Amino acid sequence: MKNTEHLVKGDIESMERRTRTQLINSLSGFKSINLCGTISKEGVTNLSLISSVVHIGANPALMGFIMRPVTVRRDTYNNILETGHYTFNHLNEAIFKKAHQTSARYPVETSEFEAAELTEIYSEVMKAPYVQESHIRIGLEFVEKIPIPVNGTLLMIGKVTEIFFPKNCWLADGYLDIEKAGSITTSSLDTYHRTQKIARLSYAKADRMIKEI
Amino acid sequence: MKNTEHLVKGDIESMERRTRTQLINSLSGFKSINLCGTISKEGVTNLSLISSVVHIGANPALMGFIMRPVTVRRDTYNNILETGHYTFNHLNEAIFKKAHQTSARYPVETSEFEAAELTEIYSEVMKAPYVQESHIRIGLEFVEKIPIPVNGTLLMIGKVTEIFFPKNCWLADGYLDIEKAGSITTSSLDTYHRTQKIARLSYAKADRMIKEI
Question: What is the pTM of this model?
Fold first, then answer.
């Protein structure tokens, strides 16, 4: 079809590096976007922007994210290994620019909370800081890091041990209305989107068509 | 704060199973939603709905997804191992109900393409079928499966070897406008959302504030 772009392996491999990075980062679809809060054993807090958080399981409650190769300094990685704790904090429209700013390369002694003018708060059970301006905040205990041999990245797995969210966004069946809570989504590396619910659908069965609930 | 729900480990662990499943599946944030197309060595095609696709790397171009424990029949898993090929096909508003229907439990000899009235098409290089009604279609070669010990799931890694997308959605710098292409996003297990772009932001540097581009 003449309006469809068709790329094959050679096209992808020979693409200019930054062009390919933008394209391939777009391909997975819309992504979650979280600020990961950590603290070093010296007490310096850190924030990093993570778009690779993925659901691993509900029982036990586990979440994963992809860590790039630790061939350079990775404060988030070091802090998680040192303290065993980290937090995920959903982005919303009021803080997405500040959150994006945390992806700049700051010196190790600089807290991204301060650099981006976000507020750190603590709970009684987690060593790692939360982002006060975030409406959905999750505390995790580090479980394991799993090497991905093909490109040297790591899958970092954590157990959900604490959750904060707006009371009026939680439905009786357990569904958390993250759109109502103001959470946003991202595409590729640098683009942010709000959402608008289309429908919630019933559990699919082979002998009937699904319907809106 | 009285309007904030606060759950700790014991609350999460003692929650009714389906309630916890809905809640924990909401926590990662908005998710990509793809139909995964495969074919068995007997030639039976299969579609499965996957909300765990994650970017692994751009050079080489790699994508991952989480496969639940293969303690029961998993057609997608078996087909990927048998043929080495699979496709990801972005959902859009015209097909999300049909796509959701594919998550019903059909007999192994039933193609979800037929059950959900979606159209299979093939390229010259991939054994696995694509979904014609999808606007962004990705062909992958299986690379490796990585066990996640803590709960028996698997991280399935594939190399992007073919891409189809609308020509008018691709910007000169490589960014693929998946919103313009009609791709949608999902939350928890059963809710679908369209998106509305807020802004695209410049690359963050420590010595200046980011801006819209």
Answer: 0.96
B46 contacts in chain A (CB < 8 Å): none
CB A190 within 8 A of CB A100: yes
Per-domain residue ranges of chain B = 30-193
From the list A9, A23, A168, the residue facing B161 with the nearest CB is: A9
Distance between A40 CA and the closest CA of chain B, angstroms: 20
| 8 Å CB contact between A195 and B33 | no
pLDDT digits (tens, 9 = 90+) for B138-174: 999 999 999 999 999 999 999 999 999 999 999 999 9
Our measurement of the distance from residue A1's CA atom to the centroid of its chain's CA atoms, rounded to an integer in Å, reads 36
Would you state the CATH architecture of domain B30-193? Roll (2.30)
**B72 CB near a chain A CB, below 8 Å?**
no
At B6, the amino acid letter reads H
Beta-carbon separation of A190 and B176 below 8 A: no
Q: What is the C-alpha separation between A18 and B116, in angstroms, rounded?
A: 38
Residues shown for chain B: 213
Residues written for chain A? 213
Q: What is the mean pLDDT of chain B?
A: 96
Q: Which CATH number fits domain A31-193: 2.40.160.60, 2.30.110.10, 3.40.720.10, 1.20.120.1200?
A: 2.30.110.10
The complex's ipTM works out to 0.96
CB nearest B100 (choices: A184, A190, A201): A201
Q: Which band of pLDDT confidence, cut at 50, 70 and 90, is reported for residue B14?
A: very high
Residues of B in contact with A199 (CB under 8 A): 96-97, 191-192
pLDDT in tens, B88-127: 999 999 999 999 999 999 888 999 999 999 999 999 999 9
Residue in B7, B144, B191 nearest the CB of A200: B191
